[in-house]
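Structure tokens please, single chain.
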Amino acid sequence: MAIENGDTVKVHYVGTLKDGTEFDSSRREGREPLEFTVGRGQLIAGFENGVKGREVGDRFTVEIPCEEAYGPVNPELVFSVDRSHVPANIPAEIGTPIQLTNDKGQCIYAVISAVSDKEITLDANQPMAGKDLIFDIEILSVK
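Here you go.
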């Protein structure tokens, strides 16, 4: 029976970047297979579309362009702040995660992407934005 919207699917997967770097896997020790309902938007569109039409026991690879994953990098989400606005207890080092609050009181997560004597540049894009993804998927069950 081919998978369609509304089906609850259980899969094992390994996610890699085009250079072969593994970024996630349900096959890591202590992890369980991923279970989701197709068509509910619980996962990135490319992953959901990749399982549609498949059946239990299928093993396959899906290449997902960034537009069907986490989207392209949005340059509006990269901005600089005066270094004096960053609390002293936060290391001013590239890669340091930081939590901000916008004018609506919502939490925004960002990463320090550049540091100068006067400014710190923050990137609030989803870390996988702009990346094409590859998933090796095995369909374990369908309800």
